[in-house]
Prior knowledge:
By secondary structure, the chain is mainly α.
Amino acid sequence: MTDRFPKGSVVRRVNLEPAIMFGAGRALLLQLAHEAVAQGVEEHSDFKGNPFKRLLGTLEAMYAVVYGSEELARGVGRRIQWIHTFVVGPTYSANDPANLMWVHATLADTALRCYTELVGPLSPADAETYYQEMTRVAEVFGVPRDQQPATLAEFEAYVDEQIAAMDVTAVGRDLASFILDPKLPFGLHLPLRPLLAAQRMLTLGALPAPIRSQLGAAWDARAQRRYDRARRLVRTAFRVTPRALRVTGPRLQGVFLLWLAERHVRQFDERQAARAAQAAA
């Protein structure tokens, strides 16, 4: 089976970097800052019981589309778009391309930001190529190409405009608290408090100031200095570690994510076939 993206493509190189995961909290909070996305999450998920389940599902789907076959990518898109048909309310639909575009934008924008800040600069040509390859990822999830910005520059302008216009709702702020101050199963948030505090600081520091302010998060010059120091340490650690060693973990994790995606698509297709047979009977 042919890979959707060939080995050596920019999107495969960038998305494999573990530095991207340092932006996971940022991407989730930017999604929840969008009124329609937050409302859909509130009414159609168990986000509060397991705030990281959405992230794990996103990782699985993204990895499958970027590193899997064309056939698997189509299956993942088919399954997710079907799931989204049930995520509707009076003022939103999860399959609305505008809502899907924003969710996709938080991932692409965050990945570019984390890579260039923590791993190294991308040439203008590579940055543009990465964006264009990511537009093909967005198409899988239901965003037609003609409803996406044409170039990286237009995409960056779109992100800035969206952030400037956002008015975080009470629902968004409530959901965000489960990312910034999570309560983990078995009380694990207690012994992991120092790590969670670091995660909170890195997440808040990476957010655009208007969104951070609307979330009501305390942030001052001292917090900014702590964030800048931490970011420099993380950047140094990534840049002195050989890439082959850096990406070993993500590669191993990717084997599991591909297996999981293939399993989910197979089960979905079997259920769809059973539904069709039952309807025809």
